[in-house]
Q: What sequence folds into this?
């Protein structure tokens, strides 16, 4: 890092800012019109940028989608890593879920979550990117579940990989709900969500309860 | 019914067949290219029909989407009504979920589930249709949960409406998974799904267990 000149550092920070501005504009346009109906021209207008400048960073819509997914994925380890150090593993998992539902822990790409799934279904390239990012999140969560089992907080009889699949399906479903009803009142759902996760992860027999 | 002449009955059966053929063709085209990229011409070709014939039944893409959602919805009461008479309510709910995951109990519109969610997010007309159909399913499932509570099989402390929201989110998430990985091996997920649903619905203290 110390080898980089101040000039090249400024330049790279400026490039990061430009990329962020374009990706935010793309998310807004894709959310409004969908991937296919949104044009590169609309994204340029939303970002306040010339087509030449935009194409220098992103040559195609697919490259924009890829960068949006990658940006969300890049945030995940930072957001979920604390789960690997939590004293109360199950409590931390529940809290992460509740923070996700409340909007405090949502990826920048959330407004196009449904659109992304739809595109991943029919576009093998986007499907592969999505799979790669999902695998990373699943691997991290599987380590969290294994750690909870080692600490005696999660049922050791539970298959960690399948448990994460189930919890991910639940999170996907909540994300679908949030995408369809961004203003929904989720206060009633929160305790029910906590109940579902705690009971799912608890050991078979709970002495004293 | 006895008032209808054989000729008009034959005509209406033929109209039903035509509608079904068009909707199947539309699902195939939408799954392949998405709502926006799929053209009415492609749907005509897939259905082996002239544009004139197709437009007589469906004047627009929105009317096709509406009819696809409506067709799925029309099947739901028949598919889920047995839950209202099951002796083992929780077992029947689990079984319905497993049959859904295995493909035995999936709506015809399943291949465009992700596409539909994406369209519902940005198209208020499709959103309203989707909401109406969802409400019908939620109402039916809420009656199922209330019945399970009355029979002492489901925790009476559970809010039936919120419980259905949670179960629906889980089903939505599994549907997203199925749409993204139609050939995924779900055999490992099935027992984990059953565990999650049974424990979620069970009364707080389970004497003798």
A:
């Amino acid at each position: 890092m110390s080898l980089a000149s101040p000039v090249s550092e400024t330049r790279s920070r400026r490039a990061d800012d430009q990329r962020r501005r374009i990706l935010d504009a793309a998310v807004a346009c894709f959310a409004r019109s969908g991937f296919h109906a949104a044009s590169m021209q609309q994204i340029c207008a939303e970002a306040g940028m010339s087509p030449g400048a935009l194409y220098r960073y992103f040559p195609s819509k697919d490259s924009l989608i890829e960068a949006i997914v990658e940006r969300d994925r890049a945030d995940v380890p930072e957001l979920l890593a604390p789960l690997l150090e939590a004293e109360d593993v199950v409590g931390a998992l529940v809290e992460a879920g509740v923070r996700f539902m409340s909007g405090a822990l949502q990826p920048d790409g959330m407004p196009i979550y449904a659109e992304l799934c739809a595109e991943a279904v029919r576009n093998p390239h986007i499907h592969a990117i999505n799979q790669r990012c999902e695998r990373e999140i699943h691997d991290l969560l599987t380590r969290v579940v294994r750690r909870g089992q080692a600490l005696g907080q999660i049922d050791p009889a539970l298959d960690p990989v399948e448990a994460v699949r189930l919890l991910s399906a639940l999170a996907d479903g909540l994300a679908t709900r949030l995408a369809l009803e961004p203003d929904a009142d989720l206060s009633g759902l929160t305790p029910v969500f906590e109940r579902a996760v705690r009971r799912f992860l608890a050991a078979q027999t709970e002495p004293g309860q």
The two ends of chain B are 55 Å apart (CA to CA). The CA atoms of residues 39 and 120 of chain B lie 19 Å apart. The mean pLDDT of chain B is 87.
